[in-house]
Amino acid sequence: MNTMRIKWLDLPDALDQTRLPMPPTTADFLQVTQLANLVTSLFWGNNDFYVSPENQLAGATSRDDVRTSYAVAREPLAGDRPDRIIGYAALSLPWEPGASADAQPTPQPTTAEVNVAVHPDFRRRGVGSALLREAEAEAVRRGRTVLQSWTDNALVDPAAVGSGPVFVSGTSLETGLTPVVRTPSESVPDAGRDRVRWQAPDAAFAAAHGYELAQMEWTSVLDLREAAGAALVAESGSGAAEEHGYDLVGWEGACSEEDAGAMAGLLGRMAAEAPAGALERVAEHWDVPRLRAEERARREMGLTNITTAARDRSSGQLVGHSDIETFADLPQAAYQGNTLVLPEHRGRGLAVLLKAVNVSQLLRLRPETERLYTWNAAENGAILRANQELGFVPVATHPAWQKKA
Q1: Are residues 201 and 123 in contact, defined by beta-carbon separation less than 8 angstroms?
Q2: What is the pLDDT of residues 318-361, one digit of tens each?
Q3: Residue 344: is it exposed, middle or buried by C-beta count within 10 angstroms (0-12/13-18/19+)?
Q4: What are the N-acetyltransferase domain coordinates in residue numbering (predicted)?
């Protein structure tokens, strides 16, 4: 009798697809990537969140500050065919690579992020539960006591992302399985439990396994095909920064040596000050070596940052920034990253201006991009209102879950 088996994957150093049969480590990782892309495409109804096998492997192996491993569930198949992977659990452990010699070392985090995906044809058979138990046990074994997860919950505006039915050959799936909720387009999305679609698979699964809602995020999208006018307005608004004693600077890719120290400081503040709801924070120490390591990891993942920053004329230092992530193999979409202004420079409209001018920079550098996604905490009303001013519309709920191990 065929039985499901769970095993931790050995990740390959590189994917070898030049010969058949492929090495087992390559074949297994390709299955994981295919399943991950199937699950995201079924939710979104598009390929805006496709991750190539090469980029996913780089994301798991090239970073010093996050260590990712995969447990997979297999259903044995008859004959000489290899075992099919029908689900996986990705376990990501934040890791502090160490502080500078002249600073106090940062304690290692106690959190772990776990994400479970199961092929729709094999759900409600205990596969996800078994994978989650395995990942939780491994997290505890590695000294982590707080388990966290972020999930796609429900679409609010499928048309805004070009969502449509997804057809999957060779399975029982004929249409997407995404729950859809509605919210007035003129209103700023609010916080709270009422916006979570509790009947959706992610919420039901999380609640059944002891996870509590720790924060609500909204995923919003800006239609860049209609954003040129707003971008021009943003460009003209850069004079407001100059009046307050700031110069706006922009770049693509790595930060200059001149600004690397200030940029590392901004990233460290972002980790400490971003709205977290009930989530346990992970303290992060950022210095120039860590910044450079992050930039190298981005290059290996095929990711390029487009950044706009504000320089304080009196000090010559960067005091705020906004960045957008782009991928060479996803020309149609871009993803808003961090936006932060140091507290002593707030209240002057810099955050909105930085976001807007960076959208203008994106349009110049990537004119083929159609959509810009952003994720924001539901309690962060100021940034949600700023997004609405720039033309973003809420498209999906994105809850964060937490459980004490």
Answers
A1: yes
A2: 999 999 999 999 999 999 999 999 999 988 888 888 998 999 99
A3: exposed
A4: 27-199
- Give the number of C-alpha atoms closer than 13 A to the C-alpha of residue 42, restricted to the C-beta side: 25
Cβ-contact 189, 165 below 8 angstroms: no
Measured distance CA(82)–CA(78) in Å, rounded: 9
CA distance 402 to 405: 10
Q: Which CATH class is domain 222-397?
A: alpha beta
**Rounded Cα distance, 39 and 45, in Å:** 10
**Domain layout of the chain by residue ranges:** 5-219, 222-397
Q: Prior bond to 21 cis, omega within 30?
A: yes
Under a CB-based contact definition with an 8 Å cutoff, are residues 310 and 350 in contact?
yes
Cβ–Cβ under 8 Å, residues 294 and 65:
yes
Cα–Cα distance, 53 to 63 (Å, whole number): 16
**Homologous superfamily (CATH) for 5-219:** Gcn5-related N-acetyltransferase (GNAT) (3.40.630.30)
DSSP per residue over 199-252, as a string?
Answer: TSHHHHHHHHTT-EEEEEEEEEEEEGGG-HHHHHHHHHHHHHHHHTTEEEEEEE
The radius of gyration of the chain's CA atoms, rounded to the nearest angstrom, is 22
Q: Which residue has the higher pLDDT, 211 or 347?
A: 211
What distances in angstroms separate CA 352 from CA 89, 322, 370, one per listed residue? Answer: 37, 9, 21
In this structure, are residues 287 and 104 in contact, taking their beta carbons and an 8 Å threshold? Answer: no
Whole-number Cα distances in Å, 92 to 7, 116, 162, 330, 337: 16, 12, 31, 24, 19
Domains 5-219 and 222-397 are alike in CATH topology: yes
Report pLDDT digits (tens) over 158-201.
Answer: 988 886 554 444 444 433 445 554 444 445 555 444 589 999 99
Q: Output the DSSP codes for 152-198.
A: --EES-GGGGT------TTSS--S----B----TTSPP--SGGGS-T
Give how far Cα 179 sits from Cα of 55, 198, 362, 367, Å. Answer: 29, 10, 32, 32
